[in-house]
Amino acid sequence: MDSAFKLSELLAYCEVESHRWRDWFQKNPAALEVKTDIAQTTNAALLVQHIIAVDLRYSQRLLGEPVTDYSALPTDAPSLFKIADEAFAKFHAFLASAKEKDWKVVLEFPTRSAGTLSASRKKIFIHSLLHSVRHWAQLATALRAAGFKQDWPHDFLMTETMP
User: Do the beta carbons of residue 43 and residue 36 sit within 8 Å?
Assistant: First the structure.
């Protein structure tokens, strides 16, 4: 039995969580206007944009594709969640095709707030997934404080992505 945690399991959890947020925001569009001060955003819509922008831009870097300019990204939820699906497809494509040596390749890239960074593809992949988990958790808290309770548990333990 392989007892090692697989990145595919974390990816699946993140994808399910993104879909739950998409469905929830369809039912609760007013929540997108909740004020935030997370990741240099001023409302929930911009934080959702930030989460999805990081997913898209890092998934593009992993595949060696041109990186979408942040300013070109929409702020409306339906468009953003379509982009989220594109990003997850790219993560899956990289995961399916990457060989051991590919994970070790170090990429240098500009960031919006931390200057130019260097990291292995493995670190970039893991960072992207943990980045979204962290910000979705912050957003969940801010939304609950503003009266917008979500109708599902966010914890990895409560997901169906693995036994």
Answer: yes
Any bridge partners for residue 116, and if so which?
110
Instruction: Read off the DSSP letter of residue 159.
Output: -
Helix, strand, or coil (residue 10): helix
In this predicted model, what pLDDT tens digit does every residue of 132-158 receive, in sequence order?
999 999 999 999 999 999 998 888 777
pLDDT at position 1, please?
A: 38
Per-residue pLDDT at 4 exceeds 70: no
**Residue 149 in contact with residue 135, Cβ under 8 Å?**
no
Nearest Cα to 74, choosing from 48, 112, 43? 48
Which of 155, 113, 132 minimizes the C-alpha distance to 54?
132
157: DSSP letter: G
Quote the pLDDT of residue 160: 72
Domains of the chain (ranges; CATH) run 8-153 (1.20.120.450)
Write down the pTM of the prediction: 0.93
Residue 36 reports pLDDT greater than 60: yes
Task: State the SS3 of 28-94.
Answer: CHHHHHCECCCCCCCEHHHHHHHHHHHHHHHHHHHCCCCCCCHHHCCCCHHHHHHHHHHHHHHHHHH
